[in-house]
Amino acid sequence: MSDFENLLKEQIESEDTESFEKVATDVKKIVQDKIATKSALMDKELAKIRQDSASTDKKQETDHVSSSFVTMVDPNDVLSYKTPGTQPLMLRKLKNGEYREADFIDLHGKTLEQAYDLTRHFIAHAREQEFRCVLIIHGKGMNQRPKAQLKSYVNHWLKQMKDVLAFHSAPDFKGGTGAVMIILKKGDKSSAINREEHARR
User: Fold this and answer.
1) What is the pLDDT of residues 130-140, one digit of tens each?
2) 40-61: per-residue pLDDT in tens?
3) Scanning 38, 63, 82, 193, which has the fewest C-beta atoms within 10 Å of its C-beta?
4) Keyword Transmembrane: yes or no (predicted)?
5) How buried is residue 114: exposed, middle or buried, by Cβ count under 10 Å (0-12/13-18/19+)?
6) Quick one: pLDDT at residue 181?
7) Per CATH, domain 80-190 is 3.30.1370.110
């Protein structure tokens, strides 16, 4: 390399160094602010959704034990209900005790919240076990204020449950108007078996 080329290289390197030092002098140290990243924003949105959902669930749970949504019945009233399309014969058989319950639950002494949870889980368990007929003892509620409070709520809850096909107050030898006999919809397993048998015919 010639002397001229060496001199030119030194000047370029010197200019680059000076330029960098000048730029570095003018640049202020960047202080990292707390910036909400996309991930953090998503976390906040998810947290809000969870909070809103929890509030909704809480409201729905409260609705289940709110008297404003329940038609009160009398202690000796006969409860009777069937979904559209269900044959009246099913109610008559329930009334006469012709169905034998596969399981039962007694709600005496329970608060409304406890009774609702127990009823919901009882029906879900019965459906899982492929039970078709079950019994719930709710009592007449003669000494409750208002009277027949728990009975009224059980009547309301059962009508809201998609697995319930029909129900009727039990015959006297099974508790009379202090209990209710319930017919549940066929489980998925039973329905599949019935479809297979029907297909073979």
Assistant:
1) 999 999 999 99
2) 554 555 555 456 555 545 455 4
3) 38
4) no
5) exposed
6) 98
7) yes
Amino acid in position 121:
H
Q: Does the pLDDT of residue 67 top 80, yes or no?
A: no
Query: Contact 65/163 with Cβ under 8 angstroms?
Result: no
Q: Domain residue spans in the chain?
A: 80-190
Type and span of the H or E element at 155: helix 149-160
φ, ψ at 167 (rounded to 5°): -155, 160
The one-letter amino acid code at 139 reads G
C-alpha closest to that of 167 among 129, 123, 118: 123
Q: How many CB atoms lie within 10 A of CB 38?
A: 7
User: Which residues contact residue 130 at a Cβ distance below 8 angstroms, ignoring those fewer than 6 apart?
Assistant: 186, 187, 189, 190
Residue 107 in contact with residue 150, Cβ under 8 Å?
yes
- 187: CB partners within 8 A, 6+ apart: 127, 128, 130
The label of the residue with tokens 């006999």 reads 181
